[in-house]
Amino acid sequence: MNYIMFPARAWAIRVVFNPWFDRVVMGFIALNCLFLAMDSKQVGFEESSVGKIVGWTENIFTAAYVLEMILKIIAMGFWWDAGSYLSDWWNRMDFTVVILGLLAYLPGVDNFSGIRTVRVLRPLR
After folding, report:
1. 64 CB neighbour count, 10 Å cutoff
2. How far apart are CA 75 and CA 34, in angstroms?
3. Distance CA 125, CA 106 (A)
4. What residues have CB less than 8 Å from 123, skipping those under 6 apart?
5. Would you tell me how many other CB atoms lie within 10 Å of the CB of residue 68?
6. Which of 11, 46, 76, 101 has its CA 20 to 30 A from that of 68?
């Protein structure tokens, strides 16, 4: 395939296969683990300053993981090619975690702790 015809894909390939990409993603995962550990179900925690920061960072981490997924899909292809995004087991797990995380943002879907707990699987990577 001629990547000159698809400059967005050529750019995504350069980004995704840069060694710093994985380092930055792993840094986000480590920070996310820290903030997940800070989360509490104590009464009034969500209204506290720490609780507000933890809630705010959840949106940032979700956006970062969605961006990572989209860049990898653009660079690697989604499903049908050898070496595609879903041909790798870790990417399948990441895809599942990201989609389940996005479900919590749908109207009428509560932020179930089960959906949030699935994000703990990311550090297994």
Report:
1. 16
2. 30
3. 27
4. 29, 30, 33
5. 21
6. 46
CA distances from 108 to 57, 105, 111, 112 (A): 22, 9, 10, 11
Tell me how far apart the alpha carbons of residues 69 and 84 are, in angstroms, rounded to a whole number.
12
d(CA 57, CA 100): 17
Instruction: Read off the pLDDT of residues 13-50 as tens digits, 9 standing for 90 and up.
Output: 999 999 999 999 999 999 988 888 887 777 788 788 88
Q: Report the distance separating Cα 106 and Cα 62, nearest Å.
A: 13
